[in-house]
What does this fold into?
Amino acid sequence: MILKNANVVFRDGVRRADLRIEGKKIVEIAEQIEGEGLDLTGLTVFPGIIDMHVHLREPGFEYKEDIESGSRAAVKGGVTQVCCMPNTSPVCDNAAVAYFIKHRGQDVGLAKIHPIGAITKGEMGEQLSEIGKMKEQGVVALSDDGKSVVSSKIMRFAMEYASNFDLICLCHCEDKDLVDGGVVHEGYYSTLTGLKGIPRAAEDIMIAREICLAQSLDLPVHICHVSTYSGVQLIRAAKQNGVKVTAETCPHYFAATDEIISSFDSNTKVNPPIREERDRQEIIRGLQDGTIDCIVTDHAPHHQNDKNVEYNMAAFGISGIETSFSFAITYLYETGLMTLPEIADKMSYRPAKLLKLEGGQIAVGEVADLCIADLSESYVVDSSKFVSKGKNTPFNGYTLKGVVKYTFVDGEIKYCEESL
It folds into this structure.
């Protein structure tokens, strides 16, 4: 297949080029390649997005999402590789569950599905999981996402043991004692609404602990879904001191503030919570200066019964895998805050390098995982049209730019917009 007349996002810039794909690989890139091909005039070709923080819910919670519906949502959003968190039922803390998730994803045959194994058995924080056996079945990282590992000793053992298998721990940073039943960010709008707040310190204290362990052990650690300005500053200082720490954030943390909770819409309830403008601005600065390495979704689909309840009783989480690319284009590129190669670096290249996955960039010899989009086209978010089972987004009615037209995985078209 030849892709012709596209604006191609390379690591060092954007250039008009033709791409030739043979099998799963990109075998030629040139200003013009002879032969018939798919005309992409006016479209932009990105390396396929790698979302390294997703909840696919299967096994156990298929009424919220399953691997097939999540994979369809992924490719619709230009996501070619999905790393799914282990807080399923049963928890992905053993080889059997890891094997099931990996092969279920292969059977569906859309996005590439990579299981993440639990750090501890049952995510209980007491005993390490079968890390070696899970690695043999394809886990690409370890996490007790949804919980922090409370014991610093267990966390130390986890980081040491994971390093023996060339894996990294992805850390959900949350001090439950400080959260103390909170449901939103602690600030002006929590006071205004009467909803119990969660202080920044609940996140920052655990970020600081993971940084201290990484520094002491000289081992890598990754901080999940950073939401606080002070957390960004801790990570920045640690990097400047040579600590092997990396970090991620999500679109809702650079695109929104806690003002949206004043609607009492339970779809605004997410963990960690959406915070203040000061936090949003520092997260953007962290993306710009490399403090924050990756943009992920923390895609957390829920059944309507989990959200259509009183705010305090509603489940935490936002369904965002279908809109993350558009949020990055709208709030980072269109505003001039980041270039297209910088966005591709955060959404594709860095996740690939961090988790040692193929892809992440467009080059000869690389796998043909591609997200092809019209950056000039706008659309209005309508969750009723989501492919994901999870319709829980607080961004209904938002106008976003950047419409995915095609998604290629291993050189094959896995998504094509209906209008085409």
